[in-house]
Amino acid sequence: MRTTLYVGGFAQDTAAESLRELFGAFGEVDRLRIIRRESKDGSGFAYVTFTTVLAAEAALTLNDHELDGRPLRVNFAR
Where are the domains of the chain? Predict the structure, then answer.
């Protein structure tokens, strides 16, 4: 049962609350882990874990959704 999504491509200054609110619209977020690192394109990535598989599957629709002027990459975490 896969409930964790990889979320990449958001801006370094994107607030954790913005991500939690965006993904929370699809179901209860159990855990949000943001990794901020210096990169050439200034993007960050995160892992969003939902309490249900259905919520995680529904949130996949956010792939290519624009947040803070940048398109998100959303898929199941490996």
Answer: 4-76
Measured CA to CA, the distance from residue 38 to residue 27 in angstroms comes to 31
Q: Three-class SS of residue 50?
A: strand
CB–CB of 5/48 below 8 Å?
A: yes
pLDDT digits (tens, 9 = 90+) for 51-73: 999 999 999 999 999 999 999 99
Cα 53 to chain centroid distance, Å, stands at 15
CATH class held by domain 4-76: alpha beta
Could you give phi then psi for residue 9, rounded to 5 degrees?
90, -5
42 contacts: CB under 8 Å, gap ≥ 6 = 11, 12
pLDDT in the model for residue 67: 95
Residue with the two structure tokens 């991500």? 19
